């Protein structure tokens, strides 16, 4: 069922191919088999956020296998061309350009990290190639143009969800924020959380920052400890979050950490261990759901990937691909403008992560769930409607 990914693209490969624009269009033209529909995917298949890219890729490949087994799009099979951006914005721009100008893809699926989507989106927009992000939540992503879509909720909703939850459910009145200053995702979520929490009547008693790749967070955590917060909001990615949780507990800090969907990785629990118990994060779905669509997807995914339980990134990769394929079947043609219009018309699509309706800004209107971590697993707490 799994089709091997094509070799990850590197800038050196592009340089070798690009002796000039003429060579790009001739010697390096599309390599898709005749009669197939090329669809591009870019993501962090390697690097510090690799579980994001791998999970998304697995969800997308499951959707591709299913659509092709059912006859493809108007009798033509989908040819998925996957590229590794290594989790780097500059590489995301390179591989997006390669997918469009060299491989001739009809649409692009990706990315997870908002900074990477923000780097690739202008390229897709300029070439009038629709791009659907499975899970980039930064508000600015779809503002890059009318060819840019997403099937996940946005940070203005996700940040509000956790501010409301902290204030009303956890009865928190004093919050600290710990943001990744170089991440559009983290900065955007932090800003929304702070605005909403203060509007509700809470106080932000400390606002600290770090950078992805940092290993020592004790100086910032010690400052937070002195400000006596009830909760600490850490909307980062799993690698740093796990370390932050351990170091906070080492300093005697017992406050619950709160976060967003960037926590969702099995590696979070490997890194953070029991230090994460009693912490909460917002996400796109819960594997504990009894919804028939979730139950069915879990069974298919586990059968395809050795019994592994899918995280939300795999679910959203699957949903993004299926939204695209449904639009391809409805579109007048697979030209950029026609395909864009068909995607934009998506209403009540039955996704695993919930019914997906794209609004006028090409964002998905859908609920979020809040999960609580205990004993190395995330457990369902609540569903929050938009």
Structure, described:
- The protein is an alpha/beta fold.
- It folds into 2 domains: 11-153 and 292-366, Response regulator (Rossmann fold), CATH 3.40.50; 155-283, Response regulator (Rossmann fold, 3-Layer(aba) Sandwich).
- The protein has 13 helices and 15 strands.
- It has helices at residues 11-17, 21-25, 50-69, 89-101, 114-126, 155-169, 184-200, 218-227, 238-250, 266-272, 292-304, 312-330, 336-344, and strands spanning 36-43, 77-84, 108-109, 131-133, 148-150, 174-180, 203-210, 231-233, 257-259, 280-283, 349-351, 354-358, 364-365, 368-374, 377-384.
- The chain has a 7-stranded mixed β-sheet with strand order 7-6-8-9-10-14-15, with helices on both faces. A 5-stranded parallel β-sheet has the order 2-1-3-4-5, sandwiched between helices.
- α10 (266-272) links the parallel β9 (257-259) and β10 (280-283).
- The chain is globular, with a radius of gyration of 21 Å.
- 52% of the residues are buried.
